[in-house]
Amino acid sequence: MTTEAVEVARPGAIGSPSSPSRELWLRVRRKRLAMISLVVIAAIYGGGLFASVVAPYSYTEQNLDRGLEGPSADHWLGTDRLGRDMFSRILYSSRTNLVVTTAVLISGSLVLGNGLGLLSGYRGGAIDGAIMRVGDVFASLPGLPMLILINATFAPRVVEFVRWVEDHTFISGLVSSGAASYLTVFAALSLFSWVGTARIIRAQVLQLRERDFVMAAQATGASPFRIMWRHLLPNVSNLVILQVSGTMGAIAGSEIFLSWFGVGVQPPAASFGQMLFEGSGARTFQANPHLLLVPAFFVTALMFAFNLFGDAFNDAVRGR
After folding, report:
1. Engineering a disulfide at 292: which of 187, 249, 250, 279 sits with its beta carbon 3.0 to 4.6 angstroms away?
2. pLDDT tens per residue, range 49-72
């Protein structure tokens, strides 16, 4: 075999077959801002994922004798009013944000949004009308005020339900771990996050269902579920990826805002929103600026990285 033949046969060489996902990844890798943003997101969420191993202290461990200390060898980012280590709470706060964001993406965008969009676009008729009218109702409501109202109204009932589960099963520690507030926040966010995804997927499916490959599948007796799963979903996968990359930052920011407002993730669970609230206020900032600057730095870095990565990923999908 000649040298020229070897060069052509190499994977990734010009003219060699390559999967769309590989080509997309190669385009993303060529964008420096996308890779830097991905590293920032991975670092913050990775620290949260392994918080129980990386964090030097527990997020609930208090030392009132060392409250409101600045950065030191023992506490790299200082301590809060109760003497809790700020670095440890940052790690556990990123884990809280990761859990809520992932749960909302899976339940709201991927399952509800894509599932209802596929069903609405493919079946049409009364099913399409019913799904879209429900979506119109949710879209017409003011998002954040409704999220605040839902969380404030149902949070105590969810806590009671979780406590009942603890009392009647072998499971324990759900309330103290903050699982009840996790459930309330991600359920409320999922309730409003599916509408945009469903509309975009429906619009694309309305075009695809008239194509020859869909009619051929119908002629062979394929079930509606098989047609949607095997034929329509792969053809809207790029839209799904774009939706995920574009909504992750918004979902993460919504969790932080709800916790800052006092109706999101509740203590003793750690949250960026709680830390921002504890550090806000002119007098607090003047006396102990690290209470606000530390969580604000990580929140700003995370949101900025999400926005940059979403823009770069969008350009890569469109071949720019």
Report:
1. 279
2. 999 999 999 988 899 899 899 899
